[in-house]
Amino acid sequence: MNDLNVALRKIPLFPLETVLFPDGVIALKIFEARYLDMIKQCLREKTEFGVISIIQHQDDSHDNPTPRFSSVGTLALIEDFDPIQPALYMTKSFGTQRFQLLSSSQEANGLWVGEIMLLEKDPLIPIPKEHQRVANLLDEIITVIQSENLLSDAPFKKPYMTEDCGWVSNRLAELLPISLAQKKSFASPKQSSYQARSYF
Question: Which among 68, 111, 143, 160 is least surrounded, fewest beta carbons within 10 Å?
Fold first, then answer.
């Protein structure tokens, strides 16, 4: 285990009922005060926040149920923001690296923070010959998106690493009409390097 994995960090969390994959893009409309403050701090300090999936809400209080989070999330770095109004930001962020959520707590302003351990990035694995049709499918999707001038709305950004198993499988997990439970399963580091197999 290297120093990257040993080091623990505390980061602000943005719980969502979706999954962000490394190198994926997520657009968020920010209007709650706790998240406006979080975004401003991240922009000011050039730091990341954590996108974490909500598994379910625990009904320990009828008025304010406590969410239960996935054990794995992804760091997100803000790439673009548009302060439409003083209390409304349109933001676009991209996923950088997976993390394991060790613990979480809620601050007085309602913002969730988590103690995390960074997980190693997906290894670079060339597309095996028998799986090349998966990469070809993604190439076709990218070509259509480019021809329709939809890149600004695409859930991924350049460089397009269609020769790498991890990148291709992450992009297909974002694009294919699969359930949120399946996306969460694919977000697991144990699954991430081998997702391409599941598409056959």
Answer: 143
